Amino acid sequence: MNMTFLQEMFQSITQRDALLRRRQGDGTPPDHRRLVEACQRLLESDGEASSIALASRALGMYQRLVPEERQRFFERLASDFAAEPEQIDAAYARYAEQRDNESLEALFEACEPRRQELIRRLNLTSGGTVELVRMREDLLGLLREQPELSAIDADFAHLFGSWFNRGFLMLKRIDWDTPASILEKIIRYEAVHEIRDWDDLRRRLDARDRRCFAFFHPAIGDDPLIFVEVALHKGLPARIQPILSGKSAGEDAGIDDPELADTAAFFGISNCQTGLRGISFGNFLIKQVVQELKQELPQLKHFVTLSPVPGFAQWLAERRDDETLPEAVRESLAELEAPAWHEDAERAERLRAVVKPLAARYLVEEKNARGLPLNPVARFHLGNGAELHRINWLGDVSAKGLRQAAGLMVNYLYVLDDIERNHENYTANATVARSSEVKDLVRKARKLVKGETAK
After folding, report:
1. What whole-number distance in Å separates Cα of residue 374 and Cα of residue 370?
2. DSSP-assigned states of every residue in 19-68
């Protein structure tokens, strides 16, 4: 059997049907009912070639739905494409009686929602993976108002976890010689520290003490999934402005040759595909980048982040109205409202004594409904096995840094020998791995909230 011939035939069918979709797409947009019918026909299809064509048509119809009709479609997915309770009951009764592998397999099959098989079949068509990632992005935008759709998201996450398995991902170095089409995406997707223009990008990519790596997936093409920006440093960096300004990180740390650096600082990690939010490959990314860097620069000893603390300033603002806190603490926090407070050395020092301990309490002890750290960046790095190592006062004095975190930045430390243990402790018990310095700050925070003098 000539597999190349079959692949070309299936691709030809898909491309021909895509052309037909574009021609038919000039009329009135379809409604969700027609799309549901198309999905039913896809599930009933037996032939691979016909399934590819049906999947292509169904995705084309979804693309032309207006937002309200997409919402109705998701609602129908939740109700009409769930598992059948009667089939589950029958399969369980058979398994309870026989308890063999055949009946267990039948039970698994009965418990799987029909949506999962539908998503698999939609993925048959050329470009199907990309369209399904975009479909999940639409779904995520609805979950806050319609949490009952979370079962559909669980199906997407289950399948994406396999499709975007680390074995399929490719790590590539991004530099100034990378194709412009990819560099444009790096500019667009940078989520931590905005890249203003091409000159700004070149400063981050072309300097000898900078590195950038990205993960790609064969089904997504040249659209990166996630990328990380690295500055080579002597010692752990505490401030982001020298790095972003284009000043050599080595010079800022008192070294002339970046090959003398002992630290690789991850100062920007950006997820590029909203539809893949929550699909974990961050741990793998960090490990792979560390291995690449150690191979090139074996003298590197420390691998840390220089991370923002989004949401911390809002949390502090809420504490100002907390009457259970000592009045002196609330008065100190009110000074954050003063214009350019960080430029007043005396005021900044008073705030430092209060804000840094409270930041440690926020990162270590404040939890969300799932019992995990309230801060999303902390969840990402701690979940990947890092240690909360150091809280840097006035690490980011940009307008954004002051607005979202009172100027604080954090070093999360990745110690290769500790990553697995930290990850397991975090996953099992939500344990926050932290340095002795952070532990001291947490103790000071407890004294502050009791009205004691922190020393």
Report:
1. 9
2. HHHHHHTTSSPPPHHHHHHHHHHHHH---HHHHHHHHHHHHHHHHH--HH
Gap between the Cα atoms of 428 and 249, Å rounded: 37
What 3 state SS string does 140-198 have?
HCCCCCCHHHHHHHHHHHHHHHHHCCHHHCEEEECCCCCCHHHHHHHHHHCCCCCCCCH
307 catalytic residue (yes or no): yes
Total residue count of the chain as it appears in this document:
455
Mean residue pLDDT of the chain comes to 88
Tokens 């979709």 correspond to 21
Distance separating the N- and C-terminal Cα atoms of the chain: 78
Per-residue model confidence (pLDDT) at position 48:
86
To the nearest 10°, the Cα dihedral for 228, 234, 240, 243?
-70
Q: Is the per-residue pLDDT at 453 higher than 80? A: no
Give the C-alpha distances (Å, rounded to integers) separating 13 from 59, 130, 192.
15, 19, 42
Residue 145 pLDDT exceeds 60? yes
- Top pLDDT among 242 and 19 is at 242
Catalytic residue among 193, 217, 233, 381: 381
Specify the DSSP class assigned to residue 333: H
Give the pLDDT confidence of 198-229 residue by residue, as tens digits.
988 998 888 889 999 999 999 998 999 999 99
Pick the catalytic residue from 248, 307, 332, 389.
307
Dist. CA 25–CA 22, nearest whole Å: 5
Residue 300: other Cβ atoms inside 10 A: 17
Greater confidence (257 vs 429) lies with 429
User: What's the rounded Cα separation, in Å, for the pair 15 and 333?
Assistant: 61
pTM across the whole model: 0.82
Angle between helices 48-64 and 114-122 (to 10 degrees): 90
Radius of gyration of the CA atoms of the chain, in A? 26
- Residue-wise pLDDT for 185-195, tens only, equals 999 988 788 88
* Residues 34, 19: Cα–Cα separation, whole Å: 19
